[in-house]
């Protein structure tokens, strides 16, 4: 794992997580990014991937058991009714039908984060993936979304990880997103799939 910032991890509220293949390993990447610092609640925003796949990766990689909320974007086009039985007991689910409706998505995520804060829970947010959002909105809109969620995360004293595949984006896009993030961390395929010790 490489980190382009010398700021301490506990000072970063927003992290740009550069890693390949988020669709198949999103939950694994999330667990790898946290290392040993486990929050009380994990909030996963899944766009083209499913909540079930994210949770499967998370459960394979982590040995902790925080509360989980999945914000499933575009779930109406997938079989969310049958999937809700497969994500497991105790996993909260929220749905946003349109991946281009970033204002609705932002409100939904903000509400989840605020509820966690009201309950006194520490929280980590994972957005998997900005690549999928950029397929539905322009770069300026996605940039504003990252900035706005970063402000919400700061307000609840949490941390947010925004995934971007460095192989699928030009350097300018990566640099533009990194401007609104406190840190940029690169996780390679080997590190993401490494078993916890």
Strand content: 15-25%
Low-confidence stretches: 5-9, 79-85
CATH C-level: Alpha Beta
Trace the largest sheet across and list its strands: 1-8-2-7-6-3-4-5
Indicate the radius of gyration in whole angstroms.
Answer: 15 Å
Query: Given the helix and strand composition, which structural class is it?
Result: alpha/beta
Number of distinct helices: 8
CATH topology: Rossmann fold
First-to-last CA distance: 16 Å
Q: Could you say how many structural domains there are in total?
A: 1
H/E element sequence:
EEHEHEHEHEHHEHEH
Report the major sheet.
8 strands, mixed
What tags apply to this protein structure?
Rossmann fold; alpha/beta; globular; 197 residues; 41% helix; 8 helices
Structure report:
Strands 1-8-2-7-6-3-4-5 form an 8-stranded mixed sheet, with helices on both faces. The protein has one domain: 3-Layer(aba) Sandwich (Rossmann fold). About 6% of the residues have low confidence. The protein is globular, with a radius of gyration of 15 Å. The protein is an alpha/beta fold and 197 residues long. Helix content is 41%, strand content 21%.
